[in-house]
């Protein structure tokens, strides 16, 4: 019997397919893919096993367990699992960061202005909603000590079994970055789980900065999502996150 090829994600920059228990990532940026493999090797948290690597291609073994949750859907993971996810992020942030930069706030500031103009001009959201969230997003632009960050710690990139984190996927954006950004992406659309994550993280975090990153993330991703066939207005998704700040 031949295993079917499942397209996990596909766009102009990267494509991931699954065949049986093997995931194959194809990245147009060979350097980024090499950094991803190096990040996985250096991270003090469980990651997928690298089966083989070539220029532009990385093969990974499937992780056990199940995703912590999905954006736009209630998470069935336990409170203890969310707390364990917070502790996992703290271990990552406590490790010396790699030499290459991750997400840069100055770049986000320029992206924010352009994104807000596009959203209003195309009638995606009202100017009132955009202006309010742009004000909230300003909290993310503040001095911080760079840490080893995952850079795209969506909750479906964190796999748990019972109350334990058993693996973290997709390290393509890993690098030196704002540690609060990881916490914000992990809890995006699941504000009710924030206290559990912060309990596991165990360090003081300004919640206003997390909310700032929620608004910033949603505003700057809106155009990409729409142009690539995703619906940010899906219940519990990016539009609902922005409306929650009103």
UniProtKB/TrEMBL annotation:
Pfam families, A to Z: APH
GO MF terms held by the record: transferase activity
Domain of life: Bacteria
Keywords, comma-separated and alphabetical: Transferase
Signal peptide: none
Stretches assigned to the Aminoglycoside phosphotransferase domain: 23-204
Residue ranges that the Swiss-Prot or TrEMBL entry lists as coiled coil: none
Keyword Transferase tagged: yes
Name of the molecule in the record: Phosphotransferase family enzyme
Lineage, top ranks: Bacteria, Bacillati, Actinomycetota, Actinomycetes, Micrococcales
């Amino acid at each position: 019997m031949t295993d079917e090829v499942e397209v996990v994600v596909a766009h102009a920059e990267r494509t991931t397919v699954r065949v049986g228990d093997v995931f194959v990532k194809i990245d147009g940026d060979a350097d980024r893919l090499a950094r991803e493999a190096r990040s996985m090797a250096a991270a003090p948290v469980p990651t997928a096993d690298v089966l083989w690597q070539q220029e532009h291609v990385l093969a990974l073994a499937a992780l056990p367990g199940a995703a912590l949750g999905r954006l736009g859907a209630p998470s069935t993971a336990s409170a203890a699992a969310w707390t364990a996810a917070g502790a996992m992020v703290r271990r990552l942030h406590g490790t010396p960061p790699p030499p290459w930069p991750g997400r840069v706030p100055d770049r986000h500031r320029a992206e924010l202005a352009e994104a807000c103009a596009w959203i209003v001009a195309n009638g995606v959201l009202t100017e009132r909603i955009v202006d309010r969230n742009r004000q909230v997003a300003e909290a993310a632009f503040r001095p911080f000590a760079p840490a080893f960050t995952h850079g795209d710690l969506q909750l479906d990139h964190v796999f748990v079994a019972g109350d334990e984190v058993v693996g973290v996927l997709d390290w393509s954006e890993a690098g030196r970055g704002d540690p609060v950004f990881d916490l914000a992406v992990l809890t995006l659309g699941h504000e009710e789980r924030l206290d559990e994550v912060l309990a596991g993280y165990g360090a003081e975090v300004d919640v206003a900065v997390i909310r700032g990153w929620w608004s910033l993330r949603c505003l700057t991703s809106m155009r990409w999502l729409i142009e690539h066939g995703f619906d940010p207005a899906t219940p519990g998704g990016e539009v609902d996150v922005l409306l929650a700040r009103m």
